[in-house]
Automatic annotation (TrEMBL):
Protein's name according to its UniProt entry: Alpha-1,3-glucosyltransferase
Organism per entry: Tupaia chinensis
Enzyme class, spelled out: transferase
Any GO molecular function: dolichyl pyrophosphate Glc1Man9GlcNAc2 alpha-1,3-glucosyltransferase activity
Taxonomic lineage of the native organism: Eukaryota, Metazoa, Chordata, Craniata, Vertebrata
A Gene Ontology biological process term: translation
Length: 350
């Protein structure tokens, strides 16, 4: 009898714990905004945040704001920026000994630090990173060990708690839609626009029932189910097929380039296709719509440093950020002033 009571008590406690976990899962409409390893960074910040304002750590306290909370958030940004400056300093050590001119602007260390610290995209968007190496089995193995270690630290606690499905459900929110938000345009924005135009025409001609028009927004960025009105709704598998087809049809002029000229642009082209038409649009787009642009800009910065040519690739890549300057009507009023000031102050040197 005692064992049965103990089992019943254990079962009730387990049910209560599962119920509490279910309640926590539904506390917010927002999904995991960065890879799981970012959760460790947030945990570290929370250890310091509790000394500023304990209420900001309450997971149910959505949209909470206070002067101490704002102070902590700003200090955390300053700290991470300082960490980035230190990382750039360490990175510049790798090119010690490289020959340069007598002028400061001709020294490789100065050029590399300026390109990283004053990168035009980083001045507008919050984060971006890219690493590139020449192919080497030793480096591949060492990189693989690093990836395994990072993955173990990142996903290990979730695997131990049997919560990995919850991570993936938040990490790949396909229900966010093909465009994710108005400020993250891609190929599917054209598809959605055509569907929108056809639905408006259908309503005007009374060919569609207004009550059957989807209410969910295709550009809100929230997790909600959206179905196209006229055109077929696009599935994750369809985006993958479209990406593979686009890669197969690599531009003919790129195919005809000699290997030294082709390698980096071709890889960037394939990666950028994933941004434009692939799964990134309705899964990874939560932050990678910015990072994918840095894949192109940072790779071509390195390409220019190595070959001293094609610098316009990196400059043109940042023109994506300057879209707002010529199309202000597409952006909310609250964003125009800050972006316009940055764009006018830090316009890329051509």
């Amino acid at each position: 009898m005692a064992k049965m009571k103990a089992r019943d008590l254990h079962g009730k406690k387990k049910e209560e714990l599962l119920k509490q976990l279910d309640d926590l899962k539904a506390t917010s409409e927002w999904t995991l905004d960065y890879p799981p390893f970012f959760a460790w960074f947030e945990y570290v910040l929370s250890q310091a945040a509790k000394y500023f304002d304990q209420e900001m750590l309450n997971v149910r306290n959505l949209n909470y704001s206070s002067p101490r909370t704002l102070l902590f958030q700003r200090l955390s940004v300053i700290f991470t920026d300082a960490l980035f400056v230190y990382a750039v300093h360490e990175c510049c050590k790798c090119i010690d000994g490289k020959k340069g001119g007598k002028e400061l602007t001709e020294k490789p260390k100065f050029i590399l630090s300026a390109l990283l610290l004053w990168n035009f995209g980083l001045l507008i968007v919050d984060h971006g990173s890219i690493r590139w190496n020449s192919f080497s089995f030793v480096r591949v193995l060492s990189l693989g060990l690093v990836i395994l270690l990072v993955s173990a630290l990142s996903l290990g606690p979730f695997i131990a708690l049997n919560q990995l499905p919850q991570v993936f459900s938040r990490l790949f929110p396909f229900k966010r839609g093909l465009c994710h938000a108005y400020w993250a345009p891609n190929f599917w924005a054209l598809y959605n626009a055509v569907d929108k135009v056809l639905s408006v025409i259908g309503l005007k001609l009374k060919l569609l029932d207004p009550n059957k028009i989807p209410k969910a927004s295709m550009t809100s960025g929230l997790v909600q189910q959206f179905e196209h009105t006229v055109l077929p709704s696009v599935t994750p598998l369809a985006t993958l097929i479209c990406t593979l087809i686009a890669i197969l049809f690599l531009p003919e002029e790129a195919r005809n380039l000699p290997p030294p000229k082709l390698t980096d642009p071709r890889l960037v082209y394939i990666g950028f296709l994933g941004y434009c038409s692939g799964l990134i649009d309705n899964a990874l787009r939560r932050s990678l719509h910015r990072q994918l642009l840095y894949v192109t800009s940072f790779v071509f910065i390195g390409y220019y440093l190595l070959k001293r040519q094609d610098y316009m690739y990196a400059v043109r890549d940042h023109d994506m950020f300057a879209y707002m300057k010529s199309h202000p009507e597409d952006f909310p009023e609250k964003d125009k002033k800050s972006y316009r000031e940055i764009l006018e102050e830090f316009h890329p040197v051509r």
